[in-house]
Write a structure and sequence with these properties.
Two copies of one chain form a homodimer.
Chain A (H helix, E strand, L loop, with lengths): L9 H15 L7 E2 L1 H8 L3 H13 L3 E4 L3 E4 L4 H25 L2 H20 L2 H18 L3 H20 L4 H19 L3 H26 L12
Antiparallel strand pairs in A: 1-3, 2-3
Helix pairs in contact in A: 1-3, 2-3, 4-6, 4-7, 4-8, 4-9, 5-6, 5-8, 8-9
Chain A binds a DNA duplex through α3.
Chain lengths: 230, 230
Amino acid sequence: MTSDTPRRLLGHSIAATLEERILLGEIAAGSKLDETSLARDFDVSRTPVREALQIVVSRGLAVRMPYKGVVVSDITRDRIDDLFEAMGEIEALCGRFSAQRMSMEERAVLLGLHETMSDLALQGGAEAYEAANTRFHQAIYAGSHNSDFVEMAEAMRLKLSPFRRSQLADRARIEHSNAEHAQIVEAIIERDGQAAEKALRRHLLSAAQTMLEKWTQTRPEVSSTRSRAS
Amino acid sequence: MTSDTPRRLLGHSIAATLEERILLGEIAAGSKLDETSLARDFDVSRTPVREALQIVVSRGLAVRMPYKGVVVSDITRDRIDDLFEAMGEIEALCGRFSAQRMSMEERAVLLGLHETMSDLALQGGAEAYEAANTRFHQAIYAGSHNSDFVEMAEAMRLKLSPFRRSQLADRARIEHSNAEHAQIVEAIIERDGQAAEKALRRHLLSAAQTMLEKWTQTRPEVSSTRSRAS
DNA sequence: CTCTCGTTACTTGCATACAATATTAAACGA
DNA sequence: TCGTTTAATATTGTATGCAAGTAACGAGAG
């Protein structure tokens, strides 16, 4: 195992740095992401750059204009709202089905994960909690017993990941999150689909709130309101 | 996402024929899709073949086993059930939000689309109805006013497309579908999110039924049942 | 006969070169 | 001056070659 070799694919790491720069505002909205220029900057060929651009586009951070190149899209407040709303609805969906379909073993595993996280909330580090948090939510996806739900949820999670990356949770947030998890676990174990749905929506809503707080600190210009009702 | 490619990309057409062969059972489940062999068969280079395999995998018709190649996955009854269930839930989701958020103009457009389809159901061809049907459902996606919902719905629609392809609807099915559309439109116009949700779930359920009927005619071996409850 | 180690073959990511197509610009004529 | 046609440029798709890493296979040792 030569650690020298890139465990992470070249295209992926390029995509990651591009995402970070876009989110930090270093790469302005509307900028053209030229394949050849990026290839020169990163000192690689066009092939991994193409893959990276595919990823960035799939995350919604840029769009391909046919024969005009890839341009980074504007990160608006509305965009972030959409993201969290969609994640919330998908998680709610998975939670509802999980409440109905999880086996006893799966419920036990979920409860075990939650108990582990309760310990981590008190004494563990933020990164350990975050890792466990991912497993917790993935258990709920899997509990829906529908591979397409799992896929959609994972896709949304990936879309949110660049935003989550900068969000270093403090202890207060972790404890709050853990309390919400308790409600989710109880609803699922009690087979109460409606309650699980509501609890997960609420959970994602509060996650969005804290995320937006941190976000507006670094990029105050991102703020707007739209009226969604007709 | 290639928004509008007039010329069909090589990789896409290769993917389409591969999908068709897989769905017809000409390519058995478990077969290895070798890049170089396919490149030779289609008389192209490995590059478009790679893109084609990416597409086939993204549709769920095959999976990549690391360092073992791409193998076509088994099309089970459970897989199809998952697909339609997920599509139904996503459409229900979009319908619920559309009922709440659509502008008056959007509601009018939806109604207009439905009226056009009612005419087509009586006198138009099946392919014309199918095209209008796609626009109808896309209008509901867009009415949710959330770009991520739209993306997920479109992704699911793409996943279902290889199955839909072989399904040539007869007049009875079209009329039934149109009646269901009437309920959907009414619920959305009346701003009744719950009703829209239910109507769309029902609509997709009946679509799944007719699809499965046709499917079992061509591939009778595909049938199974699983118990989903715990 | 079984286990281990080394070799081979295959998958796969990356680089580079080439070709085709669309957009833009420019030149030209009316 | 305006419209049309043609040339330049950029984006994008494709072809091949190569290198690196992993899995499968087989030979030799115990």
